[in-house]
Amino acid sequence: MTNTAAPAIDALHEACSIAGFDAREAQPIRVAENQIWRLPQGVIVRIAPADTGSSAAREITVARWLAECGIPVVRPLTVEQPLQRAGRVVTFWEELPPHAHGSTEDVAAALKELHTLPLPNFDIGHLDPFVRIPERLSAALTLTSDDRKWLVDLHGDLAGEWEAGLPPGLPTAPVHGDAWPGNVVRLDQGAWLLMDLERFSAGPPEWDLVSTAVRATTTGAVTPAEYEAFCDIYGHDVTTWAGYNVLARARELRMATYAAQHAVGDPRWQPEAQHRIDCLRGRHGPRPWHWTGIL
Asked: Residue 34 sits in which domain range?
């Protein structure tokens, strides 16, 4: 698997040249599985792995559709995109005004509005909770063979339960796919705004709700009072749903394999990656486990 955490300088410069931008003073905002760069012209360049071309094109179409629906959302630039350059997929976006991570209340309000939209008249794909999990496991070279096998088996078990069908729940809706306060930001003017639409698709709204529930019950990042406010605003507590355990464990698996993948390129994350796996394997007692975020 390509080391997507290495700065993709060639892709950045080639794509910017085609789109008419000068990348010589580009500044990295985030260099991880998806890279984000800022250009002096107020342009944000996003660089993704090579196999994300179709999802990048869909993300641009979704962003424009959401804006038409009145949903506050990050805006793609009107240039030819996405571009495939130097083994990466490159897209261009308007730089946001000053902003910070949103609150759990912002996430609840955004999801409540998003999930009431009808499905669009173009194909947004269907939710896959396990996208890129096999690739992450293959890239996680710091894992012991025993831990890797355990995670592979867990992936297989959960994928089987997903494919067999979840218990009845909320109606299928447009879902963000990665709904947490880093992707539902709060602008300095006071409004929330959706960003990072890579995993946007049609699916069970519970998947979006599970993200905050896991942050409350698994990682300890959300307090009981914050989670109660989240449920009050949205109007539903996903932890009471019969299918919660499957999607919550899928979210935990995503978080553990994400850490394990990035521990390969940055040894600082190896203890956190191992800690997450140890927690899932029952080596650290009951939840919440107070996981540290991977930057």
From this structure: 9-95
Tell me what percent of the residues of the chain surpass a pLDDT of 90.
Answer: 91
Specify whether 87 is located in the same domain as 221.
Answer: no
The verdict on residue 286 lying in a domain is: no
User: Which residues, 6 or more positions from 126, have their beta carbon under 8 angstroms from its beta carbon?
Assistant: 201, 202, 203
**Which position has the token pair 């919660």?**
244
The CATH number of the domain where 15 resides is what?
A: 3.30.200.20
Banded pLDDT at 6 (limits 50, 70, 90): confident
For the stretch 164-190, pLDDT in tens is 999 999 999 999 999 999 999 999 888
Would you place residue 102 in the very low, low, confident or very high pLDDT band (cuts 50, 70, 90)? very high
Considering 95, 115, 148, which residue would you say is the last residue of a domain? Answer: 95
- 211: nearest Cα among 162, 260, 175, 167: 175
Dihedral angle, C-alpha 109, 114, 74, 252, nearest 10 °: 80
Alpha-carbon gap, residue 187 to 149, rounded angstroms: 43
| Residue 49 and residue 172 in one domain | no
Residue with tokens 């406010």: 229
CATH of the domain at 223: 3.90.1200.10
DSSP code at position 72: -
Specify the pLDDT at position 3. 44
Unique residue bearing structure tokens 């539902």: 184
Helix axes 145-164, 244-265, angle to 10 degrees: 150
- CA dist 126 and 271 (Å) reads 34
Please check the confidence at residue 155 and state whether its pLDDT lies above 80. yes
Answer whether 90's CB lies under 8 Å from 82's CB. Answer: yes
275: which 2 tokens?
């800690």
pLDDT at residue 15 tops 70: yes
User: Does pTM top 0.90 for this prediction?
Assistant: yes
